[in-house]
Amino acid sequence: MKKLAKIKLFIEFSVFFIVVAIFCFWQNNSIVISNYTHRSRKIPSAFHGYKILHISDLHNKMFGKNQDYLIKKIKASSPDIIVITGDLIDRRRFDLDTAMCFINKAVDIAPIYYVSGNHEAWSGKYDQIKQSLKDAGVLILDDTSLELLKGENSIQLLGLSDPDFLTSNYLDGTNTKKLELQLKQWSNDINYKILLSHRPELFSLYIENNIDLIFSGHAHGGQIRLPFLGGLIAPDQGFFPKYTSGPYKNGNTTMFVSRGLGNSIFPFRVFNRPEIVVVTLKSE
């Protein structure tokens, strides 16, 4: 009887661990596409139905052979543009080839606009990253802006470099002086403004400077998402972070936060599958 009980217990534990392993693999490798519609009277009529696909926090993650699974998901969405809000690479296990494998295929789908994240800032290799992106045809928007044109209409696309170019690690905190000065330069522009910034925790600054729409990442969805509570922990927000996933609205400003695709220090996502965000603009 004891022998049978031990065999039963072994089988039960084996089944449990197999189920957990399958669940963890699915949670960290099965990409979900989150589709949103964003409406505003300020959106020019020519941009009605304009589709923006948002990628963030790849962290060297490979999805299928040569990123084929990720690329297939992006193609299926048929975006007008692709925006990337930082952390294509991971500074602790730097692998630019994996990131560029994705970039070199994605540029054939739609124009790509990119801003840096804290991992690029602390990698010590940003010049190399930036040159590789430029060579591939990516438009880098660190602390710069451009006009997106459609017919006779235009909207402003703005980008912020990550503030951690001014620090060396998390213990230094976040130095936002340069970022705040840049935002003030754009605050009085009356055109519809879309901002790319890695940092969702700076939402109040975006509101103060009259930004209409923000795409952000960095929070990894809170890493572990708890039912009814949301994300557990996020960099620069701590436990039970406020901004981790989806849209946040305050007055005329809306921010979309991507849960991202890869992982960094903590290697697993729980109830928090890798995400691509797609936002379709609607003119009212």
Automatic annotation (TrEMBL):
UniProt signal peptide: none
UniProt-recorded Gene Ontology molecular function terms: metal ion binding; UDP-2,3-diacylglucosamine hydrolase activity
GO cellular component: membrane
Taxonomic superkingdom: Bacteria
Keyword Metal-binding applies: yes
InterPro entries associated with the record: Calcineurin-like_PHP, Metallo-depent_PP-like, Metallophosphoesterase_sf
Keyword line: Hydrolase, Metal-binding
GO biological process: lipid A biosynthetic process
A Pfam family assignment: Metallophos
Domain Calcineurin-like phosphoesterase span(s) in chain numbering: 51-221
Entry keyword annotation includes Metal-binding: yes
CDD domains named among the record's database cross-references: MPP_YkuE_C
PANTHER family: PHOSPHODIESTERASE YAEI, TRANSMEMBRANE PROTEIN WITH METALLOPHOSPHOESTERASE DOMAIN-RELATED
Protein's name in the database: Calcineurin-like phosphoesterase domain-containing protein
